Task: structure prediction
Amino acid sequence: MTTHATPVTEAAPQEPAAAKKPGRDRYFDLLRALALFRVVLYHLTGWAWLPLVFPSMGVMFALAGNLMARSLKRPAVQVIRGRMRRLLPPLWLLGVVGVTAMVLQGWGPDEDGHPGWWLLHLTFWIVPLSDPPYAEGLPGVHGFIGENWAADLAGPLWYIRAYLWYVLLSPVLLKALRALPVLTILMPIAMAVGFEQGWITLPGERIPSALTDFSTFGACWILGMAHQEGILQRLPRYIVPSVAPVIALAGLWYALHHDFGTGNDLDSMPLAQALWSFGTVFLLLHLSPSWTEWPRRLRAFAGTITLLNSRAVTIYLWHNTCILIAATLWDQLWGFPVLEQNVPGLLESVWPVLVLVWILIGCCILAFGWAEDLAAKQRPRLWPTGESGARVRRGRRRTAPGS
Result:
């Protein structure tokens, strides 16, 4: 999903920038892979310091905004339709599995006494303009998945809803960015301050939650667009290293003065999250080495990073469920007295559970990942590490005339 242009060689200095061929930016691929791994680790452990080490959601929205700005060189309607086509089929597949299981466990139109509203809200599983509904308090399956599993399955869906709205708003945001770059970038931060101070209040839950997500991560999306547009590159080199840490530290200061800790981390503090994510993403985009090929030290991980990028939506949608299943399965080991008496530290450790989580995520990639290929109008692949494609490209270069 990343975008960039291959550099113009010295042998062809007269070639205009618009003629450069697009390629993958491996630096962005690395950032997305790290973001996904951190999300999984955080949702397993709940360690409050992890979002400080790497603000995954801000990074993921910035990379998506970068890609969207590049795509908008084509007609906006065509781009939005293409983005929705890539985003929605994996969600539909999750809905087919999840909603069917909820209905089989008794969830239905009479759940909240308003059958019509239940059916209407169910359409958010088709186009998530708002959060899709789910059944609360469902019993689990003993020894396999814990109770209230539907809440874990639906947990990541806020990201899909926020992503969809960013896509729909991107043509307007891009025009505003080109006309008033500073004001456009800072607008979501100003909204976050307004919400925090109570200057902006809205009734209900669905609209305020959507606007809160925009105020929290919208600046990161717009920063990604600004990077693609070359706006950040035109800044004096000293600006970002001077300003970005101050903004991030302001977010950290705010968090520390509002009881930051386990159970009350950045996810519970939209303004602190907005400032910390903005400052960190600003620095990461400023560094942006734009690797067209993997650095030597990372080549051993190239296949894994490619897999994570190729199945990013599948991993994000299913990882919460995989965590719940892994934790439930691992807890069964406490039923063996020999393990409980001799290796209680192992049973309490998160690391074996993390391994099991990634094994289950791998199973989800095999079972559901093909939907991302179909959404991209590509041939379905079970395990897309990119190795076969690399071999084909190398073969083509060897046989190309004049090479």
Summary: The longest helix spans residues 76-104. The longest strand covers residues 4-5.
